[in-house]
């Protein structure tokens, strides 16, 4: 801050006048003063738009700070640890927010979309299996297996077009702006039993196909294609992008949905069945009276479409006027995106963290007056200390005895977070492995924030952390078609029926449980990643499950016990010995130990330390081949990439790392310092080439 002028000196010009700088070599004495004053009098006013120095009086320079300024300084000291962190957070929020100019252009595009959607012509009623009315240039964005299904379909324009999601709430973040639009299908299209045997999803897909054919012919749209909603292959959506310079401005996603009160909620509880085994397997119904297996995921996907507007109303009520809550949601979305936790099916999405903020507000753990940074810390603290795989949470305040209990949801789902209706699990697609990864990252982030490190902001919100950086060992299962055989081997018929034939989702839970049991104390965290299914054109068939690339598993290992070559089992006369032999197969054998005990045990082949560090590779390949029929050739394991480099340096050092010198008439072996330094230089170059060690800034 500029202080007052010293005594005896006067400020040049009054407040608001331009400050004139006199040339150093201008005339001297009275003539110089007259010339300078004449030049100052004749000087032209400054050009408009140029910032001029602000001159403050002595009272203004030293006036006491206001209450608002004191609160700002106190909040910075207590909450942000430093003014730099506060500035960084504020600048990040400016970067990811959507500007008002772009909002106006997006709003104009949405109005055009609305006008065109409601003008799509109707189609007369036909059987669901009679799809001859579809034009040749469009395909149904759904795998219709089995094809035979009861019901009728006709197209009518949507009864209501509603913008839902983060765009209206002001919590969407750049660079990818997606606007979700719900198209409420008229009741005349739907029938009472459409919740059975994928009838509703077939009608939903046909509705989108007819829309796609007509909208693709409109010159307003530069791109019209299909995509899966959160990776769910039973719920495609139609993506619309504008033509011309605004092609990358926004992506509008159309989601057909039923009227909110069309389906009876009691039919969609997690204990109910809505996919009949006889229809799905193509067999005659069993006459032994055995109950149908429940279809909790299928029921949840139907319920999600009925709750789009109610979720928007809840979020709007809680976040509407609280800018701090909106900023916190935006920061949490950045945090998830940098760690790739929100990608693919079963990801921990921005919608989930928004609903989590609503839950913490309703339980008074977050206040609406909090800043975005406070909201970020509160949510991370909650995630780090709360295990939703054990103790679920609910937004429902009703005491209706007809509502299912949390225990019913825990039996059907790995992670439980109920919405305000008490019937819909928001985390139905989130696996236990994904949630544990979110918990682990939240704990690391809280430790980083509490450490007050200078680069904490950079590491927390600006540094990408893909799976290859976050885990010690990474393995890829490819091709994914091998998981179909794994489902047959593990007899996962109910899971396939519930997931509509998605054998990757059906096998994922049992697969991770198998590896966690086999790796035991060696394993600290196991996570999985499924790449998002790419978009496809309206004239193409939807991608198959095997076309999703590969399933990636990350292993975070504990140093304790990692290099142990022995898996010690129970004693031979114990009842657990049979289970141990069944789990490890031919690897299990009886061994006598020094204490005289005879136990089941598994011994892994590992001579050197580098081979011992790769024992998890042997465990994984053995268990997958034994229990899931996935051969070793389909497991692409990445672990210990530096072992070969280090081993080569050791061999080189043994020959040139020492030299013979004469000391006192005797020949002695001494280290060759130059050769050792050369080895270190080669090792450093190899480390840089082998491990991606640079920190990339997240571009917006």
Automatic annotation (TrEMBL):
GO molecular function annotation: RNA binding
UniProt KW keywords: Chromosome, Nucleus, RNA-binding
GO cellular component annotations of the record: chromosome; CURI complex; small-subunit processome; UTP-C complex
Domain Nrap protein: 179-318, 325-463, 469-628
InterPro entries, A to Z: NOL6/Upt22 (IPR005554), Nrap_D1 (IPR035082), Nrap_D2 (IPR035367), Nrap_D3 (IPR035368)
Sequence segments annotated as region (Disordered): 22-47
Gene Ontology BP term (one): rRNA processing
Domain of life: Eukaryota
Annotated localization: Chromosome; Nucleus, Nucleolus
Keyword Protein transport (UniProt): no
Subunit structure: Part of the small subunit (SSU) processome, composed of more than 70 proteins and the RNA chaperone small nucleolar RNA (snoRNA) U3. Interacts with RRP7A; required for NOL6 localization to nucleolus.
Assigned protein family: Belongs to the NRAP family.
Function, in words: Part of the small subunit (SSU) processome, first precursor of the small eukaryotic ribosomal subunit. During the assembly of the SSU processome in the nucleolus, many ribosome biogenesis factors, an RNA chaperone and ribosomal proteins associate with the nascent pre-rRNA and work in concert to generate RNA folding, modifications, rearrangements and cleavage as well as targeted degradation of pre-ribosomal RNA by the RNA exosome.
Stated name of the protein: Nucleolar protein 6
